[in-house]
Write a structure and sequence with these properties.
Number of strands: 13
Radius of gyration: 21 Å
Low-confidence stretches: 1-12
Mean pLDDT: 93
Order of helices and strands: HHEHEHHHEEEHEHHHEHEEHHEEEEH
Distance between the termini: 57 Å
Helix content: 25-40%
Length: about 450
Amino acid sequence: MGALLALPISMAAKQPNVIYIMTDQQSANAMSCAGNTDLKTPAMDRLAARGVRFANAYCALPLSGPSRAAMFTGIMPSQCGMIENETPLPDSLRNRTLGNLMEEAGYRGAYAGKWHVNTNALPAEKAFGFERLHGHDDRGLAESVVEFLRGDRGDKPFFLVASFDNPHNVCQYARGQRLPEAEIPEPASVADCPNLPANHLVQPYDPDILSWERGLSYRLYPTKGYTPDDWRRYRNNYFRLVEHVDAEIGKIVDEIDRQNLWENTVVIFTSDHGDGQGAHQWNQKTALWEETANIPLIVCAPGNKKNAGKVSEALVNNGIDLMPSVLDWAGQGKPSWNKGASFRYAVENPAAPSEQEFVVTETDFAQTGGTKGWMLRTPRYKYVLYEAGANREALYDMDSDRLEMRNLAIESAYKPVVEEHRRLLSRWFEENPGGLRYSRLRFIPVN
């Protein structure tokens, strides 16, 4: 505290730079710093060793366009009408994005890589408060960011986004297509591939609507006939793609090190959603499993060395919580339309209980059968509700069953817990009117 007071007032009040690094389709458990021994992610591990890693961060909707729309508008996908990829940003929000707000706060915005709030890349050389450094292509992306950091950045603080496409190329791998932004050689033997996850098999009381949705699109879900060996090869490719993008991120982390930007820069790393990885025999996203909805979130903040390497259990929605968090570090209040919460306090106090009582992730299988669903996560439990099908209601104990293999909603002993989570979700519906259609949604009794 004394050192801070000794600084000149202008320096103490100086706005920090913000670097936002994002991957596409990376699960929270797809990092070696998260305990995964099937891959090595030294760059992400370096960030985790310097910052705070969030174990319970979730996306707003596990699909790229809607998730990113929530990040940059601060509004849930159903609320801003962007529940599907390729949906244009409403005109009313075009000048109210996070980039616009940071520009108004005195920041220079720069964006490299995948945008996908409708268009794959930023639609112009200057748009949404950002200047475009690089298009939708991982090749050369890190180099463009390093060039920006080494160039004349002027006197303004900067808000820099580095948005990578991988490990999204696993979608092309599943369809037998050429990977557009990486070359991952096939292993000599399946024995060299990661084993199947413990939750690989579909459980008797899993929501059956997922099997129906998967059968509607071979393009999205070409894995229906996969053998165990096929799934192992899929998992190998996925983890190698994560390692591939980690190496690209490492180039940016090296430059931050070289310039020692840690002293005046908030560095945030996350992903827009995860991938099924063969858990519950699922590939792709959209479903509300942990592998698809639970995403990595690591934050390195200036003056927070005492918390380096710590893990926070705080609940975060990296969609609507990003805007108030970034604005918080910029010294700005959140806008009236945002219903998220800043995770800055959790970064500075990682051992503290979650400030948020719960977070919600929504989904809509708009690309296939249109099934809607919701996930409500409290500190101990995860409650899932799909609008149709057998076992459409599920409850999992996140302390003892992070793999989601025992649906507690079918057990009478957990009826009070299920009912409490129904009440919380009903409250969320009331506080967020006009979103995904829920007017005809009926909760079902527990036997």
